[in-house]
Amino acid sequence: MKFVKNYLSLALIATFAIIMTIMGAIGAIPGTFSALLEQCVIAVILAVSLNMVVGSLGELSLGHAGFMCIGAYVGGKLAVLLSTSLGGTNIVTVILALVVGGLSAGICGFIVGLPALRLRGDYLAIVTLAFGEIVKNVIENTDFLGGQMGLKTPSFTTKRDTRFMLFAIGAVVVIFTIFVIQNVVKSKHGRAITAIRDNEIAAKATGINVTKYKLMGFVISAVFAGFAGVLYSFSQQTLQAKTFDYNYSIEILVIVVLGGMTINGSILSAILITTLNNVLQTKLGGDFAIAKDLIYAIVLIVLVIYRNAPALKGFREKYNGKNLWAKIFKPKHNPAKDKGDAARWDVVPTKIEMNEVLSTDVVIDNTGDNSADIGERGGNK
C-alpha cells in the first residue's frame, strides 16, 4: 500500500504518456495539443526541480531560469554539431545533449552554490537573481552561441511523424526527475535537508554538514533544470537568451508556491498554469491580447488567496483532495456487519472517548469510619 502511495503519480504519468505517444504515432493528436504537452513536460521538470530548493531545502532561489538557459544553449549547440556530423537528429543526439546540458548546469550550480549558499533569505535570492541575469547577458554577447540573433537548434517539431517523440522523451525525463527527487527527499539525505530547513542551528548541533547538504540539493535542482533547458531547445526553432530572464524564474517560483511546495502539488500546478497561459495566448489575440496578462494575474491572485487565506482554512481542510477521495472511495463503517469480537473498543458505542483519561475522586470520611466514597467520572486532568 505504501509503495502504491509513493509511486502513484509516476504510474499515472507513465500511463498518460504511453496513451499520448500511441495517439501521436497514429496522427490522432493535433500539432497545437502536442506543443502544449511539450510545454507541460518542461514546466513539470522545472517546478519539481525548483521544489527541491524552495520546498525541501527552504531557500529562495531566483536563478532557476539561468540554469535552464545553460542547459538549453550547451545542449542545443551540441545537438547542432552532432546533427551536422551525423546528418540528422536522432535519439543518440538527444541523450548526449541531455547528459552534457544537465552536467553543465550542475557544474555551474556547484560553482555558484558554494559561496552563495552561505547566504540566507533575501541575500541568496539577490545573488541567484544576479547569476541568472549574468548568464543571459553573457550568452547574448557570445557569437559562438548565436549572440543577439539567437541559436538555431534542431527540432523534433519539423516533421509531423516525429513530433510526438519529443513529448515521449520528455515524459521519460519527467518520470526520472520525480523518481530521483522523491527518493532523495525520503532518504537519510533528504531528512538531513529537511532538518536544515526546519532549524539550521539545531541541524548543525546534531552534526549535520549543512554546507554539504545545501550544495547537494542546489546541484540536483540545477541538473534537472538543465534537462528542461535541453528539451526546450529541441522544442524551439531558435533560442533567444532574453527568454530566460528573471520573469521566467519568478513564474517557476509561483508554480511551486501555488503547488504548496510539494512534489505532487508542483506537478499539478505546473500543468494548470502552463495550460492556462497557453489557452490565454491562443484565445486572446488582436485588441484583446493585452488582457492576457491581466487575466493571468487575476487567476494567480485568486489561487494565492485560496491557498493562504486564514478564513478559508476550514473550507480547504474539509474539501481537499484527500478528504474528497476518502468520502468517495472509502467504504463507510457499519458496526452491525462486524462479525468479530463484539467487545472491541472501536465497535462498542460509548459516551466516553476511549482515549480520555479517567479521573478518580476519593472522599475521606473523618468521622472515624475508614470507608471511602469513590466515584468515577470521565474528564481530562
How does this model look, in words?
By secondary structure, this protein is mostly helical. The chain has a single domain, classed as ABC transporter involved in vitamin B12 uptake, BtuC (Orthogonal Bundle), CATH 1.10.3470. Helix content is 66%, strand content 5%. The two termini are 39 Å apart.
Layout: helices, strands, pairs:
Blueprint: H1 2-25, H2 31-57, H3 64-86, H4 91-116, H5 122-140, E1 151-152, H6 163-186, H7 188-198, H8 200-205, H9 210-235, E2 238-239, H10 246-258, H11 263-283, H12 291-308, H13 313-318, H14 321-329, E3 358-364, E4 372-378
Helix pairs in contact: 1-6, 2-6, 2-9, 2-10, 2-11, 3-4, 3-5, 3-9, 4-9, 6-7, 6-9, 7-9, 10-11
What keyword list fits this structure?
two-stranded antiparallel sheet; mainly alpha; disordered C terminus; 5% strand; single chain; globular; 4 strands; 381 residues
Share of residues in helices: 55-70%
Mass-distribution shape: globular
- Write out the strand line-up for the largest beta sheet, numbering strands in chain order: 1-2
Query: Approximately what portion of the residues adopt beta-strand conformation?
Result: under 5%
Q: Count helical runs.
A: 14
Cα(first) to Cα(last) distance is 39 Å
Number of strands: 4
Average pLDDT across residues?
79
**Architecture (CATH level 2) name:** Orthogonal Bundle
Largest sheet: 2 strands, antiparallel
Do you know the CATH topology?
ABC transporter involved in vitamin B12 uptake, BtuC
Radius of gyration: 27 Å
Q: Class, according to the CATH hierarchy?
A: Mainly Alpha
Low-confidence stretches: 371-381
